[in-house]
Amino acid sequence: MRNSKLQLTTKIGILSAFAFLLYLIEFPLPLFPSFLKIDLGDLPAIIGAFALGPWVGVAIELIKNIIHLFVRSSTGGIGEVGNFLTGSSYVLAAGYIYMRNKSKKTAVVGLITGTIVMALAMCVFNFFILIPVFTNSPVSTENIPLILTAILPFNLIKGVILSVITLLLYKSLSPILHADIYNEVADKRAR
What does this gene product do (predicted)? Predict the structure, then answer.
């Protein structure tokens, strides 16, 4: 039992480190506001959610954003909160659907659902929390055009990019994440 907890913790740590490193590489998309940037930091979280469960994906998102907050934040934590909410809504929805019946079909359905949930959740979170806190202004319907023309399509594009890469990588990474690390090491030593 102890080894399985340690293995899970180790896998979460490794995936969180990869997520943080990928979060550092970000780029804007043309035609979108400069504060909206694509990064692939959610990729280790969705792969972790598929292999180890949706709450593991959320844990990876949390750790990634806590590290980013202390190492590289330029928004006083608001960007990290937004990134955590974005990634968590995506991995929870996609991971939950995939964990119920692990197949290629449910992976696709989960990723599509995760993309839609993420895009809609970020509309709500931006309207009620992120934009008002970042701009230090009350909730306002004046932000609806920004949300509908930038936030919503940006998160749909981000979800599609993450989903395609996940479908391309997950099958090859899955055996590594499901491996019993300590038994493999012991087997090699015994040989």
Answer: Probably a riboflavin-binding protein that interacts with the energy-coupling factor (ECF) ABC-transporter complex.
3-state SS string over 98-162?
A: HHHCCCHHHHHHHHHHHHHHHHHHHHHHHHHHHHHHHHCCCCCHHHHHHHHHHHHHHHHHHHHHH
Which of these, 54, 32, 35, lies nearest to 45 by C-alpha position? 54
What does the alpha-carbon distance between residue 11 and residue 110 come to, in Å, rounded to a whole number? 22
How far apart are alpha carbons 109 and 117 in whole angstroms?
Answer: 12
3-state secondary structure of 28: strand
**CA gap 80, 90 in Å, rounded:** 15
Rounded mean pLDDT for each run of 10 residues along the chain, 191 residues in total: 81 96 94 93 97 96 97 90 97 97 95 98 97 93 96 98 96 82 52 57
Provide CB contacts within 8 A for 59, sequence distance 6+: 12, 16
User: How much helix, strand and coil, in percent to the nearest 5, is found in the chain?
Assistant: 80, 5, 15
What global pTM score does this model have?
Answer: 0.90
CATH for 2-25+37-180, among 3.90.226.10, 3.30.40.10, 1.10.1760.20, 3.90.1150.10? 1.10.1760.20
Q: What sign does the CA torsion over 134, 81, 75, 36 have?
A: negative
